[in-house]
């Protein structure tokens, strides 16, 4: 037996969550292990480039993440932008609520019970300037999938109940985040809650 394979086999998509909070330490670990910069490597042409736990074409890392903290012990309820380079959160003006979490996810009622949502966006120019072909858009979408799988496995390893959904109200989310939906667009939402007893 191997703990990695145990985690891989234990990963499930959850739609029911127990009441209670998730510790900030676990949210921090999720952010850092999924989107955080793990180190840097030197290149002859582009200088110092970051590497993360998921692959990114040309080390462009177009993905950004916004945290909707609803029931995170040690963190005030609110919307935050994750600064991957510095591993810190910046508070945004947007208000949050369980009802809004459900609304963001195309009114799916289960997500109102989540402790936190992780709203994944992409800044397309990071990839497109280097790979100036339409296929670069496909690469950005693939990379978002890599990030979500890393997220789900990390959440499972931490004993949390992860989920993901692409059923979104894009315009509502982008308005609340203050992004234009063109240069930066929402692509995917993942989240966690307290695991419900089966």
Layout of SSEs?
Blueprint: H1 3-10, E1 17-18, E2 22-23, H2 24-35, E3 39-43, E4 47-51, E5 63-69, E6 72-73, E7 78-83, E8 88-91, H3 98-104, E9 116-123, H4 125-128, H5 135-157, E10 161-165, H6 170-177, E11 184-195
Parallel strand pairs: 2-6
Antiparallel strand pairs: 1-11, 3-4, 5-7, 5-9, 7-8, 9-11, 10-11
Instruction: Figure out the total of helices.
Output: 6
The largest β sheet comes out as: 7 strands, antiparallel
**Are there runs of 5+ residues with pLDDT below 50, and where?**
none
Euclidean distance between termini CA atoms? 24 Å
**Radius of gyration, rounded?**
17 Å
What does this structure look like?
This protein is α+β, with helices and mostly antiparallel strands. Helix content is about 30%, strand content about 30%. It has helices at about 5-10, 25-35, 100-105, 125-130, 135-155, 170-175, and strands at about 15-20, 20-25, 40-45, 45-50, 65-70, 70-75, 80-85, 90, 115-125, 160-165, 185-195. Strands 1, 5, 7, 8, 9, 10 and 11 form a seven-stranded antiparallel β-sheet that branches. Strands 2-6 form a two-stranded parallel sheet. It has a two-stranded antiparallel sheet with strand order 3-4. Strand 7 and strand 8 form a beta hairpin. Helix 2 packs antiparallel against helix 5 (about 135-155). The radius of gyration is 17 Å and the shape is globular. The relative contact order is 0.21. The mean pLDDT is about 95.
């Amino acid at each position: 037996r191997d703990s990695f394979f145990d985690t891989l086999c234990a990963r499930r998509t959850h739609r029911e969550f127990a009441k209670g909070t998730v510790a900030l330490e676990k949210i921090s670990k999720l952010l850092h292990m999924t989107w955080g910069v793990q180190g840097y490597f030197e290149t002859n042409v582009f200088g110092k480039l970051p590497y993360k736990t998921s692959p990114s074409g040309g080390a462009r890392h177009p993905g950004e993440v916004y945290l909707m903290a609803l029931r995170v012990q040690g963190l005030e309820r609110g919307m935050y932008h994750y600064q991957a380079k510095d591993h810190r959160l910046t508070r945004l003006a947007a208000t949050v609520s369980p009802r809004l979490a459900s609304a963001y996810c195309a009114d799916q009622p289960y997500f109102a019970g989540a402790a936190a949502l992780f709203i994944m966006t992409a800044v397309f120019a990071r990839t497109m300037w280097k790979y100036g072909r339409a296929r670069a858009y496909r690469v950005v979408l693939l990379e978002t999938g890599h990030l979500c799988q890393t997220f789900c496995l990390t959440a499972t390893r931490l004993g949390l109940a992860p989920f993901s959904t692409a059923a979104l109200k894009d315009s509502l989310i982008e308005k609340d985040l203050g992004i234009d939906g063109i240069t930066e667009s929402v692509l995917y939402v993942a989240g966690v809650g307290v695991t419900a007893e089966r």
